[in-house]
Every structure is written in C-alpha cells, then in structure tokens.
Amino acid sequence: MSRSRRKKWIVLIALVLIIKALSFFPNIVEKIYTQDFYNVVSKSLRFLFGWLPFSIGDVFYICSIILLLVLLVRVIKRLFTGKLRSIRWKRHFSNAVLVLLMLYIIFYAAWGLNYSRPGIEQQFGLNVEHITVKDLDTLVQSLHDRINRDAAAMPLADRDSLLNTAFLFKQSSVAYQIAKKEYPFLNSKPVSVKRSLFSEGMNYIGIQGYYNPFSGEAQVNTTIPVFLLPSVVTHEIGHQAGYAKESEANFMSFLTSRKHPSIHFQYSTDFVMYMYAAGELFRLDSMKVKQYDSTLHPQVKKDIRTYIDFYRKYRNRIEPVIHWLYGNYLRANNQPSGNRSYDEVVIWLIGWYRKYGREAI
Considering the entire predicted model, what is its pTM? Predict the structure, then answer.
C-alpha cells in the first residue's frame, strides 16, 4: 500500500471515529453541530440546488444505480468468459470500502449527526413520563373531535389545489415561517422541496417522502392521496430543519401545519396524527377505537377507506423486505422501535397537551 493511500485510510478512519464519538454527547451535537455546522451546510446545499426545477439528489441516485449495474454486468460478463481471475478483487474491495467510508462521513457530517440531538422532549420541555392508557385515550378523543370539526368546515371543492406542487411546497414553507415567529429555532429557510422522480415506484415500498442529505432536498411522493400531502411535505421539511428522527419530524408537521390558516393543512396533519394515535390505542383497547371510528365524520371515513385502498393496491413481496431493512436502519440511528418510530409522535403529543392543555391538540 502506497504512503498516500495509507494516509487516506488513516484520515477516513479517524473521521469515522470522531463522528461516532460525538454521537455520544447530545448536548455537544446540539450546540456545535446542529446549531452551527449543520445550519451552514444545509443552507448552502439548499441555496446551491434548491432553485433547480428537478431533484438533483434523485439524479445522483439514478447515476449511482446505473454505475452499479454497469459494474455488475462487467463481472457477469467476465464470469461467462472465464476471466474472473483477471479481476483485482483485493484492490476493488479496498476501493469499495473507501467509498463506503466516505459516504458514511458525508452522510453523518451533512445531516446524520442530528440523530444524536437531545430531542423534542428537552427542547420543548415536555413531560412524557408514566404515560397511561387514559393519556392515550384522551389524545385520541381530542384528535377525533378536532378532525370532525375540520371535516365539517373543509371545502372539498378547492382540495385539488394541493395537487399544484408549486402551491403546495410554497404553503408548506409558509407553515414553517408562521411557526418560526414563536419558535425561532425552526430555521427551515430557504426551503428546497422537490417532487421525487421515483414517486410512483415509492408506492411499492410504502415511502411517502424522504430527505436527501447529499443534496439537501426534501423529496416528496406526489402520487399519494391528496389529503396526505401537506402532512408529508411539512414532515420532510422537518427533516430538512434538522429533526432526523421520524417521530420528531412528525411532531414538526403537527406543530407547523396546525398554525397554517388553511383548513386543508390542519386536516392533513390531524388525519395523520389521529391514525397514529388510534393505532397505538387499538393495541391496548380495540373496542374503544372502534367506537371512535364509528362516530367519525363521513368525509374522514371516506378518506380512511381511500388511504387503505391506495396502499392495498401496491402491496407486493418486496415491501416487507424494504420495511425490514429500513427498520434496522432506524434502530441503528437511535430509534430502537424501528418502523414504529413514526408512531412515537403520540408521546410528544401527550407531552404537549400535558403542558398546554387539551385545547392545544
């Protein structure tokens, strides 16, 4: 191994160890990384790529997939021509590990260390200790009443305005700017939200959106039912604002959409929060949830059927594998509940009404 290559290995391994060590000190991550370093990096990425009318992050992923396929075809070709021995396996393996180390460093330096922040509980001063079934029932009842009021007041005629992505993304940014007046740390401007080039394909693996740490873009699957879109966009902007954990991004969606003057934004987040809370209560008291569901507004019932039918249409054998892989990714990043981490937003909602009263829900 050459001296320059040895130095490269030493530098990369040292950076990985530094990142891993930092992750054990949440307060340092919050003050030095999230508030300073990440703030500069994420804003720079959004200024650099946010103006583009397409997702540069998706283009990067497409190019990476093509490159991997080309390499695979070359290996298969050599296999059938008996030239496998001519491949310098040790060298290629070493290069692959170097690339993975670089991707690890870029990922955690550009965004991933946000997984190690102290969290919503500390930032908002929420009491989430000793949560009971009664607490959960109170939350579901509050959301049930709220979503019924939303549905009764919601003009369906202009709901399709949310299908205009420029309007949807701008209004989602407005939601954060309104919330920022009360919570200055919600530093999401400039917002870089894009329609994902993989939108249709994302339905087959149950993904509604994702944040691309390499480009700073919030990617949205715009083919999902329209009433879910405001919640998904504000969730992804939450990731962009530095809330890496899924439950915390969900809470950001609740906090910002609730302050938006549009009833469609309020309904969207109330619908999603009701589904999460009712799902958690169902595990403990299914009959209670059935009673709540039976008294939902007809439009809410219709939207629930639409939601279920939509994802039933895309069920396939690959989806469980993707969920398993993603669940393990979440567990590796301070979210031990895996895919159920999304549902844990109910913990923050309970802490919220404990602090501000049921009317805050």
Answer: 0.93
